[in-house]
Amino acid sequence: MTVRAKKHLGQHFLTDKNICRKIADQFQYHQGCKRALEIGPGTGALTEYLLQQPETDLSVMDVDSESIDYLNEHFPQLSGRIYKKDFLRVDLEEIMGKEPFAVVGNFPYNISSQILFKCLDYRNQVPEIMGMFQKEVAERVAEKPGSKQYGIISVLLQTFYDIEYCFTVDEHVFNPPPKVKSGVIRCTRNERKALPCDEQLFIQVVKAGFNQRRKTLRNSLKKLINNPDFDHEYLSLRPEVLSVEQFIELTSCIYEAGKQ
């Protein structure tokens, strides 16, 4: 049977076996985790090579009925571990239980950022995220402070994951070819168990800062600062120059000032 790539699902099927092998080889099983969930496997181009990794306990998830039928036909070894589910809507504990698992895939470009944010919600269960994104998204996630690409997703992911940009993939190795290049990144869980500040306020500070990134933080964070006497050296800066640690420090100071 054939599987048609569907534009509304953001599908671009990877056709170059060498790239598939290269992605699978980058998978490191961080913290010894051998369980993996592949998102958007399509026709199983990457699945084939993930299954060749020693001791891999692989499950796959796709919303496309054609892909699910194809996978059931061509990958009988995955019987019982092929899920027709929407990753963004499913309760992952119902599928994967409470044990750690990595997330891997040639991720659908139209939801790739949302996939990362959901993994962030499950960060204590997901020690590694490995896969392909639109190059611009991959670079943004991995970017360091001081760049125009550094933004909300950079700070929030880097708070709990170490990010490595692995390699770039050209358009012609997909069917249909996307209009942009792709980038493969690896996110590995760092040692930060919890933030030393109010996490919800931290997220608000990061989002408010970058939502008005041309302004200084003094202007963009006005609604979050309840103490009119509060001042901090970082408030005179723009958000893109602050590191994760500096955002944490600023959040802690804002929180303490709000209690006075």
TrEMBL record:
Primary subcellular site in the record, as a coarse category: cytoplasm
Enzyme Commission identifier(s): 2.1.1.182
Pfam families recorded: RrnaAD
Catalysis performed (reactions): adenosine(1518)/adenosine(1519) in 16S rRNA + 4 S-adenosyl-L-methionine = N(6)-dimethyladenosine(1518)/N(6)-dimethyladenosine(1519) in 16S rRNA + 4 S-adenosyl-L-homocysteine + 4 H(+)
InterPro entries: KsgA/Erm, rRNA_Ade_diMease-like_C, rRNA_Ade_methylase_Trfase_N, rRNA_adenine_dimethylase, SAM-dependent_MTases_sf
The entry's keywords: Cytoplasm, Methyltransferase, RNA-binding, rRNA processing, S-adenosyl-L-methionine, Transferase
Ribosomal RNA adenine methylase transferase N-terminal domain mapped to chain residues: 19-191
GO cellular component labels: cytosol
Magnesium found in the keyword field: no
Chain sites annotated for binding S-adenosyl-L-methionine: 12, 14, 40, 62, 86, 106
Single GO MF descriptor: 16S rRNA (adenine(1518)-N(6)/adenine(1519)-N(6))-dimethyltransferase activity
Chain segments annotated as coiled-coil in the UniProt record: none
Compartments where found: Cytoplasm
Record-linked Gene3D superfamilies: Ribosomal RNA adenine dimethylase-like, domain 2 (1.10.8.100), Vaccinia Virus protein VP39 (3.40.50.150)
Enzyme class: transferase
Domain of life of the organism encoding this protein: Bacteria
SMART domains assigned to the protein according to its UniProt record, in alphabetical order: rADc (SM00650)
Family: Belongs to the class I-like SAM-binding methyltransferase superfamily. rRNA adenine N(6)-methyltransferase family. RsmA subfamily.
Function in brief: Specifically dimethylates two adjacent adenosines (A1518 and A1519) in the loop of a conserved hairpin near the 3'-end of 16S rRNA in the 30S particle. May play a critical role in biogenesis of 30S subunits.
Name of the protein: Ribosomal RNA small subunit methyltransferase A
UniProt source species: Taishania pollutisoli
